[in-house]
Specification:
CATH topology of the largest domain: Rossmann fold
Number of domains: 2
Order of helices and strands: EHEHEHEHEHEHEHEEEHEHEEHH
Radius of gyration: 21 Å
Strand content: 15-25%
Shape: elongated
Structural class: alpha/beta
CATH class of the largest domain: Alpha Beta
Helix content: 25-40%
Distance between the termini: 57 Å
Largest sheet: 7 strands, mixed
Bound molecules: 6-O-phosphono-beta-D-fructofuranose
CATH architecture of the largest domain: 3-Layer(aba) Sandwich
Length: 341
Amino acid sequence: MRVGVLTGGGDSPGINAALRSIVRFGAKHNVEVFGFLEGWRGPMENLMQPLTTADVSGLLHIGGTILGSSRTNPFTLEGGPECVVDTMKANAIDCLVAIGGDDTMGVAHHLSEYGVKAIGIPQTIDNDIAGTDYSLGFFSALEAITDALDRLHTTAASHHRVLILEVMGRDAGWLSLMGGVAGGADVILVPEEPFKVDSIFEKIKRRELLKKRFSIVIVAEGASPEGLNGQVVDEAEVDAFGHMRLGGVGQYIANKLSERMHIPVRVTNLAYLQRGGSPAPFDRILATRFGAAAIEFALEGTFDVMTALHGMKIEAIPLGEALKQTRPVPAGLTYLIDLFE
Ligand code: F6P
């Protein structure tokens, strides 16, 4: 069997570990693996290279993706899906493993209508893909956020400041909520619940009454201020999947707070620092399990599915099912936002 693999969308730590697992587990079962470069651009433009066990040696702890990534969308390009099909046929690729977020999963699913046998591996630091307990990369990003909050605490305490940390999370607040809990943020803001600057101000004031002379706010890039009528956008230009670049909500809050606070308010945007670097142990293990499961599904002929973590098990779920839903932070966890209030 000949399996192609690609990595699309925003990268995250653990992709290389998944590639290593696909190739090594594949080799054990006489599966030849080929890597397509630069996301969906690879199969569109026939950018492909064999991946041997030697090629993936030493990758377990290396972040990013050796295949490169892009936000190319074959469905927005003239003849795009047909190009992918032609590349698959020309190279006698039996099945395609797509590692990425919901956009990548969506393309993989729609290509099945063109006869492409695809298997998805959910990978995004945002953890917003439905149908799996966790996506690859989430726990690594959480480590970076927790470390950032630890560092912000010491300097905030020394200088008696309000420090705001802006993190990723376009529509779901997993990074902000879980990072905020792990790093002890005093105010946690998520896209699921529009916020009022007044409420942030009041929380900080309540801390001051308790003689706490600093406060830490964590905010997801997708959190929207009540009354602003939408998210804070950095660049209005949309990508091939229709997303605008978010960013600036931290500075928006800082500006509003500064109008009425006597202590300085400063912003740190963690940006790509939370997406780079070595995968956390959890992600190395998840990547290894997802990669091996993808090969197992290919060998048994189960396609148009996504590898999913359900408790301790890795299972195949229909890609269409995963894509039908969004994955906000569930109501059962949002109590953590105000746990100590
Ligand atoms: O991969 C998802 C994500 O991490 C989002 O949270 C963020 O909005 C986006 O990537 C930004 O990615 P890029 O700037 O690479 O397009």
